[in-house]
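Work Package 3 (structural annotation) set out to generate three-dimensional models for the target panel prioritized at the project kickoff. During this period the team completed the workflow that converts sequence records into discrete structure tokens, so that structures can be stored uniformly alongside our sequence database. As a representative example, we reproduce one entry of 146 residues exactly as it appears in the project archive.
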Amino acid sequence: MKRVYVNEEWCLGCHLCEYNCAFANSHLPDMALALKGKPIYPRIHVEEGERISYAVSCRHCEDPLCVKSCIAGALSKDGEVIEVDQDKCVGCLTCVLVCPYGALAPNENGVMQKCELCLENAGGQPACVIGCPNKAIVYEERGAVE
């Protein structure tokens, strides 16, 4: 399965992946209209250390703890992609606690969201990959994850 991977040595910590993600998921036609002067709620986030920066997003685990632990049944695995039914989510944060990668976070309404690979948004590649100026984020097939 193709997944989003990060090459930490190339990550500049610029946060453009976060802005491109938030814009792609805003469903608005203009980035300035969607994001200017507003808090953003990306489905990927950049962690910064003293010597390294890297983007964190869902790994779409084969045996996902988040899906197993969701008390509302809001998380499900559709094929190889883990999806959130935001209408079912009760915001209990259990999925946040059990995810070993820190890939889930609440949106502006307290409902969980996570990377769903831009299946509805970007044609062929996730928005974070397209918007990364240094090509630190890639969308490709690799060996088994977990």
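The chain has a mean pLDDT of 91.
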